[in-house]
Amino acid sequence: MDTPKYMTDTAALTAIGERIAQHRLQLDWTQAQLAKEAGVSKRTVIRLEGGESTQLTNLIRILRALDLLANIDELLPPPTPSPLELLRSKEKRRKRASGRAESDDEKGSQEWTWGDEEGPDS
C-alpha cells in the first residue's frame, strides 16, 4: 500500500477492496458466500472489492465474517497518553496513608449510644 497519508480516497478504497478480495480468496469463498456470511448483499461485496464506497456497517460485517475485525486496533489504535499526562498522573497517585482517622483506642473512650435512652436528665 502507498504511503497512507498521501493516498487519495479512491486509492484507499481500492486498496481496502483488494485486500478484502485477497482474504476472501484465501478462505476459498465466492463473493456470494462472503455476502451470506456477512449478512450483506452480493452487490455490496462486489462494490467493496471494486473500491467503491459502502456503508461502514457493511465493512464491519464483512471484516467480522473474514475474522478480521479483531485487527481494528491496528487500524485505529487506542490513544496513548502523552509523557506529560503520564507524569501528572503519577504525581496524583497516593503514596501513603494520611493517618487522620481516629484510632480504635480513641474511639473506645466514649461508648456509643442511640441517643434515645433515658438518662439522669430525663
Describe the protein.
- With 122 residues, this protein is mostly helical.
- It has 7 helices and no strands.
- α2 (31-38) crosses α3 and α2 (31-38) crosses α4.
- The chain is elongated and about 85 Å long.
In short:
Helices cover 52% and strands 0% of the residues.
Low-confidence spans: pLDDT under 50, at least 5 residues?
Answer: none
Cα gyration radius (Å):
31 Å
Counted by DSSP, the helix tally is 7
Strand content: under 5%
**Main beta-sheet annotation:** none
What is the CATH top level name of the domain at 4-73?
A: Mainly Alpha
Spatial separation of the terminal alpha carbons: 90 Å
Question: What is the residue-averaged pLDDT?
Answer: 84
Q: Quick one: how many beta strands?
A: 0
Q: From the helix content, strand content and strand pairing, which structural class follows?
A: mainly alpha
Please bin the fraction of helical residues. Answer: 40-55%
SSE string: HHHHHHH
Q: What's the overall geometry?
A: elongated
The CATH topology of the domain at 4-73 is 434 Repressor (Amino-terminal Domain)
CATH homologous superfamily (4th level) name of the domain at 4-73 = lambda repressor-like DNA-binding domains
Reported CATH architecture of the domain at 4-73? Orthogonal Bundle
